[in-house]
Amino acid sequence: MIAQQHANDYWKANLRIILWSLVVWALVSFGFGIILRPMLMGINVGGADLGFWFAQQGSILVFLALIFFYAWRMNRLDREHGVDEV
């Protein structure tokens, strides 16, 4: 029973990390790049407006950062729950 609860806690934490990563990805790619683009047009980054920058480069950079964050956080979670690779 304790092992099952431990496994449930691990997967709940895993799903929470995935959910927040997807929320950040959606906010940056769809929110900043498409939906909020008219509001971001007045801010210039490298000669282009911020909404265009997020649509073209910012969402890609944030996606790469999310990959590294997910790997780092999952390694830490694995160690906390004793399921890490030695």
From TrEMBL:
Top-level taxonomic group: Bacteria
Keywords: Membrane, Transmembrane, Transmembrane helix
Every Sodium symporter small subunit domain range: 8-84
Keyword DNA-binding: no
Pfam families per UniProt: DUF4212
InterPro entries: Na_symporter_ssu
Transmembrane segments: 17-40, 52-72
UniProt xrefs under NCBIfam families: Na_symport_sm
Protein name as annotated: DUF4212 domain-containing protein
Organism name: Albidovulum salinarum
Taxon lineage: Bacteria, Pseudomonadati, Pseudomonadota, Alphaproteobacteria, Rhodobacterales
